[in-house]
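Q: Entry one of two.
A:
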Amino acid sequence: MELELTETQSLIQKTTREFVDRAILPVAAELDRSERFPKEILAELAKLGLMGVNLPVSLGGAEAGVVAYSLAMMEVARGCASTAVTMAVTNMVGEVIAKFGTEEQRSRYVPRLTSGEYVAGSFALSEPEAGSDPGGMRTTARQDGDSWVIDGQKQWITSGSHAGVFVVWARTGDVAAGTKAISCFLVEGGTPGLKVGKKEDKMGLRASDTVSLTFEGVRVPASALLGQLNGGFKIAMMALDGGRIGIASQALGIAGAALDEAVAYAKDRKQFGQPISAFQGIQWPLADSKTELDAARLLTLRAAWLKESGQPFSKEAAMAKVYASEAAGRVVDRCLQVHGGYGFVKEFPVERHYRDVRVTRIYEGTSEIQRVVIARSVLR
């Protein structure tokens, strides 16, 4: 693994950073307060190639690789974690279709995601009774002539009110078969019978749309099957491995922003006649935070590099995700403490970061699930 960024990676990082400084940071607090889905920002991200960073140019992507994607995610999350998660899921949906889709599916959906014609893509795996255990899903798909008919419910669907295409998992065999009887389908937004539930009133990521979905006799053509019949679980697990790199990167972006703000505050805030940055009680938490974030960044970029190189990366992605998300939580907590009482009010961004970072330990696989993945690899 090269520790120096390539010219392409540096360019993606620099371009994204400049865009974040110009277009996202000035409105991030307003997006959080109003819970406004940032369609105009997402359209600009698409123009910059950031809705398909690791997708081929032939499908409208930037073809810049997974390391560049991770770096871009860190920058976007530094500005607005809500925007970053929408970007992450859309990239993940595009990659899933590009990898497992037919030529028709690839050419129909991926360019619409990368160009911004579709505002976002959505990943519909979790259900009210099936989160960490996808084998317990109850959504079904049955064949009816040359169509599939999908019935069931999905929960915690990012961008569900705005997605142009959903990657949907459903049971296509006996319940006793568990994960061996799950298939994957592509369902377009607005398909008859697809009902979008209420927007969740979340603690953080307030500008990211999170909804439930109900499928009532949703009829899709036979060509909507993604990959092999009953091969959906494999697709989900491979997608989540990559998704964990994205969420680790998001966590790093959030915590990095909090650390920058804590450092600036500590230099400016004076107590006992001097800046609080002069006190060891402030210096040590900042030092610990910088060390943990650098370690998490290296873990994350290692996982990204392995994926980009075509090598196994499941364990490394889990390690990056669990360490980065938990370290980010500790860092943001310390940074809020540095702000004192001001960290507890919405005037300072660290309050938003504190709310936003918490979910990174839950979605794309909880910390507990990451430890299961890592332990299985260690004990193999």
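Q: Entry two of two.
A:
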Amino acid sequence: MSPDLMLAFMGFAVVNSITPGPNNMMLMTSGVNFGFRRTMPHLAGVNLGFMLMMLLVGLGMGQIFARFPIVYTSMKVLGALYLLWLAWKIARSGPIEDGEAAGHPMTFLQAAAFQWVNPKAWAMVIGAIAAFTEPSAYVTSVLAITALYLIGGTPSSVVWVVFGTAMRRLLRHPRQVIWFNRAMALLLVLSLWPIVSDLIPR
């Protein structure tokens, strides 16, 4: 993989990882409700789960979805339903103290599994494989962009956790946290639009 292509992919990884999406909204919300340390398994699951997804899709799993579109469509529908359930849970979250007592942040495995039903993750994986792999060295390219994502994507995710943790110090009043969680739930629902628009017959 050429240095120019590596640099271009790093820009792609940073821009796509730091812009708003389901992962980042949930990481920020977890930072607000549970703090930086307790959100670390969630953060690790997002990034390592995404890397595994990119590796598997790049090495051939994508052909399964191309051959059996119903599998891909089913995953989109399941992803939409799961996001709605997450939005409902976030919207019903109480003040920080109540969340710490009764709730828990997303686990490593839950966050890793979520990547497979995350529409933004699919768009990133397909875009990365289509744009940054070299046919003459395809497997090496897939391995390279998977490894480079760890360098470009992880710090971008950390930014959202840090931002949420900083907001945690500002949202002292219980009502402020409740309305913040409801706003994040609404944004999570709005992030479903790419799935819905893709499923609408044209």
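A: Comment on entry two: Residues 22-67 form the longest helix (46 residues). The chain is about 85% helix and 0% strand.
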